[in-house]
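Replying to the earlier thread about multi-chain prediction with a worked example.

Input:
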Amino acid sequence: MKVMPAAAAVLLVLVLLTWLSFRASNMDAERFDRALGALDRFAMVESALQRDVLSARAGMLRNYDPLVREVTALNELGQAVA
Amino acid sequence: MASLLVIVATAAAASQPEIPGLQAPPDQEPISSVPSPPPADPFKLALGERLFADPRLSRGGSRACSSCHDVGTNGADGNRHDKAFDGSDLPFNTTTVFNAALSFRLGWEGGFRTLEAQAEALLENSGPMGTTIAEVVGKLSADPKITRQFGEAYGHSPDRASLLDAIATYERSLLTPGSRFDHWLDGDAASLSIEEQNGYQLFKSLGCVSCHQGVNVGGNLFQRQGIFHPLASPKPEILRVPSLRNVAITPPYFHDGSAPTLDEAVRRMAAAQLDRALSDHQVEAIVAFLSTLTGTYRGTSLVVAPQ
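Result:
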């Protein structure tokens, strides 16, 4: 007769642990990581673009290809985050 | 300890994803060398090359992309204006397909951001090709040989996306490295004569290089035309700055093809865009420099297309 309460307790613990396990897992974690990485890269490329625009304005950057690459990278990163 | 830190820092830097925008810009010259064509799937490349010369991509099978873009000469043709199907002139001079992939926008007005979008528009435009993608896909699907080629390249029969991708893949391979100017940029000082180097210095000091810079010597910004004096046909007022790669072998010049020679084009550009009247000697020097921008395709130097 003492087996029933013990079995019920084990079952309860199992259910609790399963529930906690499901609560702890985040199915979107990888997507969030990718989005955060894209946002970090977006900020870096945006800084590079500002640097190059200022350099071009000051006559220190005479080749505008980096500006094109940066704007293209920003567009692609924006689409990746969206 | 210091060497350990260096190793860790190097490993961390190597693991960072490459971000094109953060590459340090080359600090030496405003023009950079044409790179080798990017690696591509050989099946897609072969299919794209075949499609580029396939007249089934036009209304009635009367012309192919290569009819106006002859990759055996200069990637264009020698006509001032090519003809639409109704016999009228197309609105703009045909530009060379060589190095088009290096420009940030495509077409004289820069209306296309990708080669795929441009190919789609030209196929469906009533002027150049006068067909529809659906019609082309239908014709190609009825051909077992090319359907097999699509299968090898894309794993399925012809469709809109694979058709445009194959053409764009081929166009991306149409780069012309190996010009004498690129050899000079890469350190071979003997590649340019004194006159050609003087022409390059003049090209920079006059201000031509303000718009014609970068890997394609243009092709990376928009600009108003006819600023100080009329240049050519006044419309459109804003054009994507054309590339000067291979310019010596791609006459006639300007969007309306109104300059038959490079000498005349240089003289008119200097007056219209820089308000400068160039001497004959200056024009000769700049033309000498521009002639060094002619590259090679598949190991052979490009040549002028017949008129």
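Helices of chain A lie at 3-24, 29-57, 65-81.

Feel free to reuse this layout for your own posts.
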